[in-house]
Specification:
With 120 residues, this protein is mostly helical. 73% of the residues lie in helices and 0% in strands. The protein is built from six helices and no strands. The protein has helices at residues 5-19, 25-41, 45-57, 62-65, 73-87, 94-117. The longest helix is centred in the last third of the chain and has 24 residues, at 94-117. The radius of gyration is 14 Å and the shape is globular.
Length: 120
């Protein structure tokens, strides 16, 4: 059974609540926007994981992905991807469906960062 949008929003809010004191809204929004784009073009979860691992180590982007609360943003996103994979049924197009749900989740995460952390 696929994850509901309310579960995706809840997860996004949990992440931002966890790292809110350390995450910069502007760079966080930029990096998460790039993650949405990567999820939309990745043909499979392993391709996205590869992209995310690279981003988490790059000097230019690690300040977002390595921000830590209980877990790093990187670890939070991987945990959510694992959950999406667990609940997505088998069949043709499974990888594409997983990536579509992940892109929706990342979109909610971006919105939450803006809503909770952007200065007025």
């Amino acid at each position: 059974m696929p994850l509901t949008d309310s579960r995706l929003v809840q997860a996004a809010e949990e992440i931002v609540k966890d790292v809110r004191q350390k995450l910069d809204a502007q760079s966080g929004t930029t990096q998460i926007s790039r993650a949405v784009e990567a999820a939309l073009v990745a043909e499979a979860p392993c391709v996205f994981r590869n992209w995310l691992a690279y981003q988490a180590k790059r000097r230019e982007s690690k300040d977002v992905w390595q921000v830590r609360g209980k877990k790093s943003v990187y670890e939070w996103v991987l945990s959510m991807l694992d959950e999406i994979e667990r609940v997505t049924g088998p069949g043709e197009g499974r990888d594409r469906e997983i990536m579509k749900v992940l892109a929706r989740f990342l979109g909610y995460l971006r919105r939450t960062v803006v809503a909770e952390l952007a200065e007025e």
